[in-house]
Design brief:
Strand content: 5-15%
Helix content: 40-55%
Shape: globular
Number of helices: 19
Structural class: alpha+beta
Number of domains: 2
Largest sheet: 6 strands, antiparallel
Oligomer: single chain
Distance between the termini: 45 Å
Length: 481
């Protein structure tokens, strides 16, 4: 069992801390004691604290460290719908979750486990796998927080789609039951079996075929087929053109801005020359074989790219690299890593580099990670040193579109997300204790369904608060981007 409180690399530790090895019976008893102290029913519902921080104030706090000209785009994207707001409100929810009951059982938490942060991507063995796929906020924390973040997202998205209360509840119950049943299964498995367990796309289709309708299976098959087309070559064809015989990223400010769009020509050229040093520094964070592979590629262009919803305003760069020739592109994304939204509620990361925090958390939670996943620290165009993590921009990536989901597909998808989250948590936390806490009855499932509906109401109020803040001129939103 991994000790999630001891995240430092061997070079960072003066002396490894001792790990206490409890028997399976002692671990199960630990979960039962936690259940007695924090009953499963106590997780039901949500009541905002009387000292609850102003949600818009929390968003403004985050904006202070972001690219000022991009912050209005973040607000504009959050205004698209209550679900879009939810995606960008990880800090707000973390603040709320800190006031709710917790069992005291810790895992490597995702920190932002909403339904759109699950999806398919290529494993190192070139198999299509389904897993959690966003780790900007990962940190050791209560396992319940990830479950509640997932459940809340299902209800908020369901409300946006006009699902009935029963349809929303069915989706949440499927997710939590999936989590509970998988955790029970994992509790009975050997440690190595748990570590090697993964959800391959073919297995998803097989499981859905046994439980879902032809409509669900057909839609899933289309999603997986589309994911196979999402790679560096597809990104190259979409984002680049040939200029004077050289491949170049096409500027589309403010969403995609090449260095000449951001700096005077001489400064842009100087910074581009420093990119090679940046890549060399990043290479050192990779395994030796992957470092050798990356050395075959050279950087030919780069641009700042606006990504996501909650991440908008943090610095994100795309690097176009070329292998044997122009028909052999590799797109890397370098994304700024700031402190996790969980940090102020569960304590600081043991990693001094936030990029390394993200990478370590991703490796710990995912069954298979991007082969080029690494980190670095470097000076930005404003001269400020910041932490980054890097990965491929696209590598058979795919995720569901909440705007296209129907009730039956949502239930099936929610169940797979629940399975996946349980497996991710079992790699770091005490799966036997968590399984004992959950038990065999649906008591926890029902409590989380109640919580999710209550929190969706709170999210709606917060969404309306952002609308008012924009109308009053407190914050500026740029829509349509």
């Amino acid at each position: 069992m991994v000790n999630v409180s001891d995240q430092k690399t061997p070079s960072q530790r003066a002396k490894p801390s001792a790990v206490v090895h409890l028997s399976a019976a002692e671990r199960a008893q630990r979960g039962k004691v936690a259940r007695a102290e924090v009953p499963r029913a106590s997780h039901a519902g949500f009541e905002p604290s009387s000292t609850r921080p102003d949600p818009i104030g929390l968003l403004e706090e985050q904006a202070a460290s972001r690219v000022a000209e991009l912050v209005p785009i973040r607000y504009g994207r959050m205004l698209v719908s209550p679900f879009a707001f939810y995606r960008g409100a990880a800090l707000i929810m973390a603040s709320d979750l800190a006031t709710t009951p917790r069992s005291g059982l810790m895992v490597q938490a995702c920190g932002d486990a909403h339904m759109s942060n699950f999806g398919v991507f290529a494993s190192a063995e070139r198999n299509l796998v389904f897993d959690v796929n966003d780790f900007d906020e990962t940190l050791p924390g209560p396992w319940e927080w990830d479950v509640k973040r997932l459940a809340g997202s299902l209800v908020v998205a369901g409300r946006d789609r006009g699902f009935s209360a029963k349809e929303r509840t069915d989706a949440v119950l499927a997710a939590v039951e999936g989590y509970r049943n998988e955790m029970q299964t994992l509790a009975g498995m050997r440690d190595l079996e748990v570590w090697y367990r993964r959800i391959d796309a073919d297995q998803v289709l097989k499981d859905l075929g046994a439980q879902a309708t032809k409509t669900v299976t057909k839609r899933t098959g289309k999603l997986l087929a589309k994911a196979h087309t999402q790679d560096s070559m597809a990104a190259f064809n979409k984002l680049c053109q040939v200029v004077d015989g050289q491949p170049r990223i096409v500027s589309d400010p403010p969403l995609i801005s090449r260095l000449p769009d951001l700096l005077p020509v001489d400064e842009a050229e100087e910074l581009f020359e420093r990119i090679h040093e940046l890549v060399r520094s990043y290479r050192r964070s990779l395994q030796s074989d992957r470092r050798h592979l990356l050395e075959r590629f050279k950087v030919v262009d780069m641009a700042r790219k606006v990504v996501g919803v909650g991440s908008v305003g943090t610095r994100a760069w795309i690097l176009l690299m070329e292998g044997r020739d122009e028909a052999d592109p590799l797109f890397l994304q370098a994304k700024e890593a700031q402190a996790s939204v969980l940090e102020r509620f569960v304590g600081k990361s043991s990693y001094t580099n936030q990029g390394e925090r993200v990478v370590a958390g991703q490796h710990l939670m995912q069954a298979s990670s991007d082969i080029f996943l690494g980190w670095e620290r470097n000076d930005g165009i404003d001269g400020v040193r910041r932490d980054y993590y890097l990965r491929q921009l696209k590598d058979w990536k795919g995720s569901v579109d909440p705007d296209q989901m129907i009730p039956e597909t949502t239930v099936a998808y929610a169940r797979v997300c629940g399975w996946t989250l349980a497996r991710a948590h079992a790699r770091s936390g005490d799966r036997i204790a968590i399984a004992a806490y959950l038990g065999n009855s649906p008591a926890f499932d029902r409590a989380i369904a109640s919580f999710a509906e209550s929190y969706a109401e709170q999210n709606q109020r917060d969404y309306q608060a952002l609308q008012k803040a924009v109308a009053d001129g407190r914050v500026t939103a740029q829509t349509g981007l």
